[in-house]
């Protein structure tokens, strides 16, 4: 989706998904999941961050054309 939005001049959406994938979800999950579910939950952080990023992209897709 990032490449598509960049090519269609929707750079704000591309930036939002890109930043949520690298700077938003992974650090937040890395800090919170071990506190809530124990240190073994650290293994789930990256996968859950990808799922949340996909949800962010879907939300942006539904919000407008």
Computed over alpha carbons, the radius of gyration is 14 Å
* Percent strand: under 5%
| Helical segment count | 3
How confident is the prediction overall: mean pLDDT?
91
Shape label = elongated
Poorly predicted parts: none
Helix content bin: over 70%
Terminal CA distance = 13 Å
Question: What about the largest sheet?
Answer: none
H-E order: HHH
What is the tally of beta strands?
A: 0
User: What would you call the structural class?
Assistant: mainly alpha
Short description:
With 65 residues, the protein is an all-alpha fold. The chain contains three helices and no strands.
What's the structural blueprint in terms of helices and strands?
Layout: H1 2-7, H2 11-37, H3 45-63
Characterize the structure shown:
- With 65 residues, the protein is mostly helical.
- It has helices at 2-7, 11-37, 45-63.
- It starts with a helix and ends with a helix.
- Helix 2 packs antiparallel against helix 3.
- It is elongated.
- The protein is built from 3 helices and no strands.
- Helix content is 80%, strand content 0%.
- The model has no long low-confidence stretch (mean pLDDT 91).
Tags for this model:
about 60 residues, mainly alpha, 3 helices, elongated
